[in-house]
Amino acid sequence: xxxxxxxxxxxxxxxxxxxxxxxxxxxxxxxxxxxxxxxxxxxxxxxxxxxxxxxxxxxxxxxxxxxxxxxxxxxxxxxxxxxxxxxxxxxxxxxxxxxxxxxxxxxxxxxxxxxxxxxxxxxxxxxxxxxxxxxxxxxxxxxxxxxxxxxxxxxxxxxxxxxxxxxxxxxxxxxxxxxxxxxxxxxxxxxxxxxxxxxxxxxxxxxxxxxxxxxxxxxxxxxxxxxxxxxxxxxxxxxxxxxxxxxxxxxxxxxxxxxxxxxxxxxxxxxxxxxxxxxxxxxxxxxxxxxxxxxxxxxx
Length: 300
Description:
Order of helices and strands: EHEHHEEEEEEHEHEHEEEEEEHEH
Oligomer: single chain
Strand content: 25-35%
């Protein structure tokens, strides 16, 4: 079968596009490795309609069911190769080959998360990665930043908008520049250079951090900041898509199409503010223009 559109990535942007294209009655398949940011986040707090937060996995489950009800197909595998002959050809890790007239790349990014025991269950609930998403959650509260060198120091300084009670733990024990050390001191941010051994939590609620030197730092809220996030744009590169130096995909701000005809991108893999609500909008907008391009081709 030749699909009207292959969507690579079943996160928030990919699912929103799948729903929109399914409602247009197009033949759509989502190729999803089931290993993305939205799989890990236990709660998004800044999404319209969910004032108490909603987990990424629940959003994915609801969106997948909604897309399937519209006839969208799913292939749970990792797409590893992309090329174009008469149609786009996507090959998965297991060797399956999917053909399509259009491609939407919604592969996202993956945060650099340290392998600290018991950290993952807290993500999005009491340990956060994005100050734009969750700075509000620590308003006027003691907060710990677990990070690496200058990246962690800058996160701590950014969070002074929300709270003046901050500790920066340089888990990676990498150098912090002198000017940032001065700024940390000026803002009365406590600086500790020591690896975190484990997270102490009550289910998903942070209680304390145990350091490798045996010190125990009490706290109920934390951010992680390590930099070096993985931008999953390798398939776009294989298709000749223009990338920025940071590997994010360049897209048309109106249509979300890349520089390669009939290749679109949406969500965190594109160059934009990394927000779930923006990912939804981009997925929907890309789908609208994919639909328009299919109409122009005829046959509908």
